[in-house]
């Protein structure tokens, strides 16, 4: 007889049969037979977590206005949110986003059979094309802007702001021939930045198979037209236009862009944005605002209510005196009042408190902010920075606990995201606008083109190929990082073009041209060039001038 059977018999029970085999858990928290904890619906941690499974457009379109209005409210009224948007704008786009032409001369040579399409031609063509581009993009008359208020770079700054706040960047490219004239516009191509709120279904109807939040698509999912409300829905002063939508085709029959719509694609089959950079951290930012406000209110109250005078009567005695008609309480209060009115003694401008018999002074300790306030705020801001693709110190602007290594590592990671955002925006938003202008420039201006040069529409991508320059990464330790850049160029791991664009956002040819001007200025004045000019030979003599 086993031990188990003996114990059962001693207790007067009956054995329940053989013991079942011990069952090992199949997962950490899941119910038996379930392979993934992530699919658990009965456990304490996952119970009730049943998010909907929607398509990309279905999960965005119905809630777009609510999300965008909340994000805008944060950016308007919260310093952390406004600062995060400003940092991204300044690092990714700034107000000097410009293209440097890089025509694909190899493709043009193969297409035309003309070997004159070479690197030298590409250099000459790029310099001429970029000069015509600047005459339009930086026009003092702002004829590049249909509203005549912004330069092209400023328009891109505004479009990128809509992208990171609203989730969409939208532009219309009207053909304004009436602007052309002496002292006026040189080209008819113009750009108008459209508020994404105006992109919506006519008469606010529900999304349909071929209409998604104002974007008209084919059965294959190709956007072919955009429905844009003539005025914002909240513009009461343009009430008639708020109920009129214009259907504008995406491009002309020969492929010229008319509407440029860009957003970050997070899923296949997505045709609208509606979720900006701060959407994933919106709730935490709102919680932080409330916490900051509560701590500030408490600190102000404690600062104002610093001390109080306590009388000798407690609540019970006071209540009995009032109900019993005892005049002693009133007499005592009158005596206190008369005492304090005649006692206003100060020493060197500081008042000396003299108390009536029975009184005592108590103080309020202002224990604000709470002990864990700083750490809580830092944790929330780290979450915001991670969700926005930024370094934590870029959001908080607090560099007190950061050393060189950690700062450089964090900023390099953030720079990858900034650079990706700039290139993504340049490809999807700025380049289509540039293509529309280049089509007009190729027709209106005399550019250096060899014989048998393909027409612009035949090789649009080859002529329009370019590299967009924006703000540089900058330096944390200028001496060490510049020395590293020089070593990289000398070792063949980098080029002057890469270093100028990456670190300072400048064109390398313009840098060399400026160095040449400065060197000539030293020579013309008979001054020895300093060592930083970089032109001394081993003997320490200046190289001879070509015209000497």
UniProtKB/TrEMBL annotation:
GO biological process, one term: virion assembly
InterPro entries cross-referenced by the UniProt entry: Phage_lambda_portal
Segments for region (Disordered): 10-34, 520-548
GO molecular function: structural molecule activity
Superkingdom field: Bacteria
Official protein name in the record: Phage portal protein
């Amino acid at each position: 007889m086993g031990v188990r059977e003996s114990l059962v018999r001693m207790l007067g029970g009956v054995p329940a049969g053989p013991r079942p085999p011990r069952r090992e858990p199949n997962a950490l928290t899941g119910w038996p037979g379930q392979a993934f904890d992530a699919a658990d619906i009965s456990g304490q941690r996952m119970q009730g977590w049943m998010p909907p499974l929607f398509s990309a457009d279905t999960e965005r379109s119905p809630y777009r206005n609510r999300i965008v209005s909340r994000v805008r409210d944060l950016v308007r009224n919260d310093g952390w949110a406004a600062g995060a948007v400003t940092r991204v704008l300044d690092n990714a786009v700034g107000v000097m986003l410009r293209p440097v032409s890089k025509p694909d001369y190899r493709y043009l040579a193969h297409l035309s059979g003309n070997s004159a399409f070479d690197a030298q031609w590409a250099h000459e063509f790029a310099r001429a094309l970029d000069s015509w581009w600047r005459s339009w993009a930086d026009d003092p008359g702002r004829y590049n802007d249909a509203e005549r208020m912004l330069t092209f770079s400023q328009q891109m700054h505004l479009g990128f702001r809509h992208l990171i706040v609203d989730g969409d960047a939208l532009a219309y490219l009207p053909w304004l021939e009436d602007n052309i004239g002496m002292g006026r516009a040189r080209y008819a191509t113009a750009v108008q930045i459209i508020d994404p709120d105006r992109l919506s279904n006519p008469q606010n109807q529900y999304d349909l198979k071929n209409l998604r939040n104002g974007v008209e698509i084919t059965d294959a999912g190709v956007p072919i037209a955009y429905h844009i409300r003539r005025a914002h829905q909240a513009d009461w002063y343009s009430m008639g236009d708020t109920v009129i939508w214009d259907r504008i085709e995406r491009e002309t029959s020969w492929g010229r862009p008319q509407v440029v719509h860009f957003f970050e694609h997070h899923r296949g089959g997505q045709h609208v944005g509606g979720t900006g950079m701060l959407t994933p951290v919106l709730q935490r930012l709102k919680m932080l605002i409330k916490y900051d406000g509560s701590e500030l209110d408490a600190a102000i109250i404690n600062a104002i209510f610093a001390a109080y005078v306590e009388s000798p009567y407690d609540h019970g005695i006071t209540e009995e005196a009032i109900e019993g008609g005892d005049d002693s309480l009133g007499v005592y209060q009158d005596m206190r009042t008369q005492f304090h009115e005649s006692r206003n003694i100060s020493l060197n401008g500081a008042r000396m408190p003299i108390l009536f018999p029975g009184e005592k002074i108590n103080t309020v300790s202002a224990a604000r902010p709470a002990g864990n306030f700083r750490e809580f705020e830092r944790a929330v801001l780290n979450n915001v920075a991670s969700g926005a693709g930024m370094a934590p110190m870029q959001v908080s602007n607090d560099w007190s606990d950061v050393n060189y290594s950690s700062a450089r590592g964090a900023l390099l990671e953030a720079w990858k995201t900034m650079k990706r955002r700039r290139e993504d925006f340049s490809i999807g938003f700025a380049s289509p606008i540039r293509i529309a202008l280049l089509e007009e420039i190729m027709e209106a201006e005399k550019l250096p083109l060899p014989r048998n040069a393909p027409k612009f529409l035949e090789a649009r991508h080859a002529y329009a190929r370019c590299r967009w320059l924006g703000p540089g990464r900058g330096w944390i330790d200028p001496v060490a990082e510049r020395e590293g850049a020089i070593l990289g160029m000398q070792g063949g791991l980098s080029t002057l073009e890469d270093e100028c664009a990456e670190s300072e956002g400048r064109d390398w040819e313009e840098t060399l041209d400026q160095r040449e001007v400065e060197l000539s200025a030293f020579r013309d004045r008979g001054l020895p060039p300093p060592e930083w000019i970089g032109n001394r030979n081993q003997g320490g003599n200046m190289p001879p001038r070509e015209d000497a």
